[in-house]
Amino acid sequence: MSVFRTALVVLLLCLGTAPRFAAAAPRIGAAAPDFTAVDSYGRTVHLADLRGKVVVLEWTNDGCPIVGKWYRSGAMQQLQRDAAAKGAVWLSVISSAPGTQGFADGARANELTASRKAAPAHVVLDPTGTLGHRYSAMTTPHIFVISPDGVLAYMGGADSIASTRTEDMARAEPYAREAVDAVVAGPSVAHPVTRPYGCSVKYGS
């Protein structure tokens, strides 16, 4: 695929990504929007209960080619495992509405986790889009990193090259990895806000 065609595909995937009816946009340096949600096993996940830990939110949709790139390559799974090894809590969030691309109930979400050998602490189900709108999540993937004191430290892309090509990942700046490492270590994140790229989050409204 030519560079032009790749760029065009990514642009088309990203059109219409702004969530409707979003609450006030989250801000770097401010308290991350609190939430209570249910995971794929029916367990309650409350952000406030994770205070004292680095928390990573990853919006995902298994039908999205960009998400596919990250999981086919094993890069997202490795990010999840490396973050967990550093004590971070990784939450994969599915905000696809019923009947849309990427929608998953608990059983399907668990099948995806097993088949992809993914390693999130929880897969959070958000079929109403409430959590997605609260964070103004626009694309899959869209990554947010929250510091142990509950402050939003990073929001943006998984890396710097908007492409469906796995070979581009080696030369991209790994924004999400850098952000997790920085927040775990304590210093400020070099690029706290970057442009997310991928498919639009498939909100129902």
The major β-sheet equals: 7 strands, mixed
Give the count of structural domains. Answer: 1
Question: Might you state the CATH topology name?
Answer: Glutaredoxin
CATH superfamily: Glutaredoxin
Low-confidence stretches: 1-22
Shape label: globular
Biggest sheet strand line-up: 2-1-5-4-3-7-8
Q: What's the overall average pLDDT, rounded?
A: 91
How many individual β-strands?
9
- So what's the CATH class? Alpha Beta
Note the topology.
Blueprint lengths: L2 H12 L21 E4 L4 E3 L8 E5 L5 H8 L2 H11 L3 E6 L11 H10 L6 E4 L4 H5 L4 E2 L1 E5 L5 E5 L18 H11 L13 E2 L5
Parallel strand pairs: 3-4, 4-5
Antiparallel strand pairs: 1-2, 1-5, 3-7, 6-9, 7-8
Summed up:
The chain has helices at residues 3-14, 65-72, 75-85, 106-115, 130-134, 175-185, and strands spanning 36-39, 44-46, 55-59, 89-94, 122-125, 139-140, 142-146, 152-156, 199-200. It is α+β, with helices and mostly antiparallel strands and 205 residues long. A 7-stranded mixed β-sheet has the order 2-1-5-4-3-7-8. It has a two-stranded antiparallel ribbon with strand order 6-9.
Overview of the molecule:
With 205 residues, the chain is of the alpha+beta class. It has a single domain, classed as Glutaredoxin, CATH 3.40.30.10. Helix content is 28%, strand content 18%. It is built from six helices and nine strands. Strands 2-1-5-4-3-7-8 form a seven-stranded mixed β-sheet. The radius of gyration is 16 Å and the shape is globular. The N and C termini lie far apart (34 Å). 41% of the residues are buried.
